[in-house]
Amino acid sequence: MNLILRIIILLICVFTLVNALVFVGISIYRSVHAYELVLHGAVDERPGLHLVESLDGFLLAIVFIIFAVGFGKLFFPENVLMKQIQISWLEPRSFTDLKHVLWEAILTTLVVAFAIIIVEDLEDLNWLHLIIPGSILLISLGLRLLKDNHQ
Fold first, then answer.
1. pTM of this prediction?
2. Per-residue DSSP letters for 37-59?
């Protein structure tokens, strides 16, 4: 049973890293497309929006990398590969440590996603656009309360 659990966790880590690479690839494609729009003078197609969307994709890739490396370090601390990955802010000793780092990365991603939505819908804003800032506020408050309780 222990071996099956370790294989499942390993698969989760591997596929999460593959997902991160896919997000990086998509974001590179979006960035290159935005540069092409700028070079061809197609400013009316909003190349800046494509660049911000690529930033959002890169941030999502970072969230996936944090998740995969964090799980790897938690479940396979003696693995040679995990020992070689030295990121000072990503050395989780527990799920709580990993959760704090993930929440901070997700908050940053939500802020960028909200900026994209506002720019896209600038002509037609309504009260539903307040859902993401409300979520950001609630997650921030929860993170702050958790940090205060664990320090």
1. 0.80
2. HHHTT-GGG-HHHHHHHHHHHHH
